[in-house]
Amino acid sequence: MAALTEPRHGYAVMSLIEEKTKGTFIVGPASLYTIIKKLIAEKLIQIHDDTDSRRKVYILTRKGRDILLQDIERRKGMIYMAEQGLQRGHI
Amino acid sequence: MASNGLAFFEELDMKKLSKKAAKGWHLKRFRFAGYELEKGEAEDVIYNIDYRTLPVDEKDEYFELFAFGGWTHVCSSADMHIFKATPGTTPIYSDAESAIDKLARLAKPVNIVASIMLAISMILWIWMSVSSGTLQHIAQQGFACSLIITVPALMTSGGVYYHMWKSMRVNS
């Protein structure tokens, strides 16, 4: 979802993830396709431009944006907890 | 090449296709209960299969994504699509969640067939129990014939659920 804060087509999402994780994580095409279909069904993303049927462009919806923000907060909380724990810890 | 039954031995089928390709026999298309191979150059490739109903306007995008991921489309039959890639390519399903979704999609038609066949067998069985004479004889024959399809259909259904259960356990 973070990859669709700006309009992107499917394989731009794939290459962005590969680039950002320095090639340590690559999304399989069938996984990505399944995820795109799911996010559309849940109205978290929408089609931004489908003039090129090979490369449909998707973008986050308002609802998707809210969910993403919630998820960021949740992850921040986890990171904070882990950092605090490590500082207090004995390892 | 005969298939071992995709619901049970999908991985085995894909590995066998790889081995054949290494010997120069390449997958050409699906055939009833198996695959048609074609003689060519020996090639080191891996195969993956996906199950998906593709509306016409989504075909291009779907195959384009696979091509970008390094997977060449080999052949399709109804809702089954086989792809090949060089060894080491990221599998078409890189996470457990979407892999389970794939099995759920496969389970749907399999379950429909299994339920219909089970219903037919049960009706014939009841008929066989209540009727007599020639009618009973016909019902008996019908019941025996229906079992030929019902039993494998139920086994296939079970096979899909077994894989789903296995994937879920790995996931959690």
Structural Rg of chain B: 20 Å
Question: Structural class of the secondary elements of chain A?
Answer: alpha+beta
Strand-residue proportion of chain A: 5-15%
End-to-end separation of chain B in angstroms reads 36 Å
Largest sheet of chain A: 3 strands, antiparallel
Keywords for this entry:
A: 91 residues, Arc Repressor Mutant, subunit A, 56% helix, elongated, B: 172 residues, 2 domains
Structure, described:
The complex is a heterodimer of chains A (91) and B (172). Chain A is α+β, with helices and mostly antiparallel strands. Helices cover 56% and strands 12% of the residues of chain A. Chain A has one domain: Arc Repressor Mutant, subunit A (Orthogonal Bundle), CATH 1.10.10.10. Chain A has 3 helices and 3 strands; from the N terminus they run E-H-H-E-E-H. In chain A, a hairpin with a 7-residue loop joins strand 2 (45-49) and strand 3 (57-60). The longest helix of chain A is centred in the C-terminal third of the chain and has 27 residues, at 62-88. Chain A is elongated, with a radius of gyration of 16 Å. In chain B, helix 3 (96-130) runs antiparallel to helix 4. The model of chain B has no long low-confidence stretch (mean pLDDT 84). With 172 residues, chain B is an alpha+beta fold. In chain B, strand 1 and strand 2 (34-39) form a beta hairpin. In chain B, the strands form 2 sheets. In chain B, strands 3-5-4 form a 3-stranded antiparallel beta sheet. Chain B has a two-stranded antiparallel sheet with strand order 1-2. Chain B folds into 2 domains: 6-85, no CATH class; 96-171. The two termini of chain B are 36 Å apart. The A-B interface holds A 10-11, 14-15, 25-35, 38, 53-56 and B 48, 50, 52, 57, 60-62, 64-66, 68-69, 71, 90-95, 98-99, 101-102.
